[in-house]
Design a protein that fits this description.
single chain; alpha/beta; Rossmann fold; four-stranded parallel beta sheet; 14 strands
Length: 401
């Protein structure tokens, strides 16, 4: 069905242009072939699609609304800003869209355990929720740095019955959590499925996560036209691995709407403390797929940084890389300072506390709206900021006034 499958690729080997594929140890080739075969079967299975639609409506709370941030727009000047409210999903972010699909796939395949990594914790919470819903065991790998930053989400995962595995090597953040989760899956792939948290990893995960996230863009396009009679002039979303952006972009690929992916510039390019892969990366391989990658001189993944735990990943989804090369999507950056200012503006002017990840996209929209002077920008507000409150108050205070 249109809201599940897509006709835009990848090819049979999992490549979007020259990016993607699956670079796997020999012992994982058969398990991944099993996942590919199972996914293609269920994606055309009316019973599976019907069950997923029912879950989205009655459990997740879809469709999520599009909201006109009128006060923010008027205070900012220029184009009007609209928000696709993925923060109103059950569990508080877009991640539940693909986690319920992956959980349903695990049940279909007869697996008893799901394994995943998480950075900001939203994917971990969403997968723990899916595991509880479907009666599966759940193991979430999370860097110690992110466990400290995202304590509320760690508690939520444990309350939902998940085992949270602290990752103590390297920078102790998202990249290391992916490494650890892959190792756990390698040790027990017969009974488990690795549920990747973004449009990254070996084929079929960039395709599969995108297909489950496409509902965001399909809904948003219909809702925006119903509200305004037009299409937005621009759509923007934050990009780490890139799942929320891919979800909303796919609703507008065939339209004359400009698409912008907003990456974390962190403390700035001169410091090296950033995760702006599209701006400063080059082609490389990480976690079983080819993409733009921030690298050291020897080709190994470089250390990355962002105030947003969900964006500090040195790679990016292969379809995003293809969109960059073809020019269909423009990839831009947002600094920590710009993100902070946008976070507080949305809180104070609209009564919405956004995730720090999503605040990157809001910051770009504010600047772009002033530049455009008129028209409309649609932002994918991918998550809510409950998880970030301790970090915000400790590092940014409570804002002015």
């Amino acid at each position: 069905m249109a809201d599940i499958m897509s006709a835009t690729g990848p090819d049979e080997q999992g490549f979007f242009g020259k990016y993607g594929g699956k670079f796997l140890p020999p012992q994982l080739e058969a398990p991944f072939a099993e996942i590919i075969e199972a996914y293609y079967r269920i994606a055309n299975d009316a019973a599976f699609i019907d069950e997923l639609r029912s879950i989205r409506k009655h459990f997740q709370g879809r469709p999520t609304p599009v909201y006109h941030a009128r006060k923010l727009s008027l205070a900012n000047g220029g184009a009007h800003i609209y928000l696709k409210r993925e923060d109103l999903n059950h569990t508080g972010a877009h991640k539940i869209n693909h986690c319920m699909g992956e959980g349903l796939l695990a049940k279909y395949m007869g697996k008893r355990r799901v394994i995943a990594e998480t950075g900001a914790g939203q994917h971990g919470v969403a997968l723990a929720t899916a595991a509880a819903y479907f009666g599966l065991e759940c193991e979430i790998h999370m860097g110690e740095v992110d466990i400290a930053k995202q304590a509320p989400n760690v508690s939520r995962m444990r309350l939902l019955g998940a085992k949270v595995v602290p990752v103590t090597h390297g920078l102790k953040t998202l990249k290391e959590a992916v490494d650890s989760a892959f190792e756990a899956y390698l040790a027990d792939y017969q009974n488990s499925i690795y549920c990747i948290g973004s449009v990254v990893g070996p084929h079929p995960f960039p395709m599969m996560v995108r297909d489950f996230q496409k509902v965001v863009g399909i809904e948003a396009r219909e809702q925006f036209r119903e509200m305004t009679g037009n299409l937005p002039d621009a759509v923007c979303a934050c990009v780490g691995g890139g799942s929320n952006a891919m979800g909303i972009f796919h609703g507008f690929l065939q339209d004359p709407t400009a698409l912008f992916g907003v990456e974390p510039l962190g403390r700035g390019p001169k410091t090296g403390d950033h995760a702006a892969t599209m701006s400063y990366g080059r082609e490389g391989i990480i976690h079983g797929f080819k993409c733009y990658l921030l690298q050291n001189e020897d080709g190994s993944p470089a250390p990355v940084y962002s105030c947003a735990s969900g964006l500090d990943y040195p790679g990016v989804g292969p379809e995003h890389c293809h969109f960059k090369d073809t020019g269909r999507v423009q990839y831009v950056t947002c600094s920590d300072d710009e993100c902070r200012d946008a976070f507080f503006k949305l809180c104070r002017l609209e009564g919405i506390i956004p995730a720090i990840e999503s605040s990157h996209a809001v910051a770009f929209a504010l600047a772009k709206a002033r530049e455009m002077k008129h028209g409309a920008i649609l932002v994918n507000l991918s998550g809510r900021g409950d998880k970030d409150l301790d970090y915000v108050i400790e590092n940014w205070g409570v804002g002015e006034g």
